[in-house]
Write a structure and sequence with these properties.
Layout (H helix, E strand, L loop, with lengths): L7 H13 L10 H22 L4 H53 L1
């Protein structure tokens, strides 16, 4: 399966998936590195557009895209962090239940 490139559309799609699902969306191991490279590219393009004309439509569009990507990146990270925290709690509760059942099992067999 070919990996999707990291661009505005992919980040927006991931943002929607993470906000709408209770489970983590699978990502390739170097996804966050790719996001970093994409942001660096946007910043470079924005600097070049501003050098030509700081008030150009291209500069404004790039600035808007950069702002939105930064916001969505942060929100995606927070969604995933929250989901991982919930998973950790579930695993801890399951462990406690297994320990309690094991203790009950030893009481019953005595």
């Amino acid at each position: 399966m070919a990996e999707e490139p990291v661009n505005f559309e992919r980040i927006t799609k991931l943002y929607r998936e993470e906000s709408g699902k209770k489970t983590l969306t699978p990502l390739e191991p170097d996804f966050w590195d790719k996001v970093g490279r994409y942001l660096a590219s946007l910043e470079s393009d924005l600097a070049a557009a501003r050098a030509k004309d700081p008030n150009s439509k291209a500069a404004m569009l790039l600035q808007d895209e950069l702002r939105k990507v930064l916001q969505k990146r942060e929100q995606i990270y927070q969604y995933r962090e929250r989901k991982l925290g919930l998973l950790k709690e579930i695993f801890q509760i399951n462990k406690q239940i297994r320990e309690q059942l094991a203790a009950l099992g030893t009481l019953v067999t005595k």
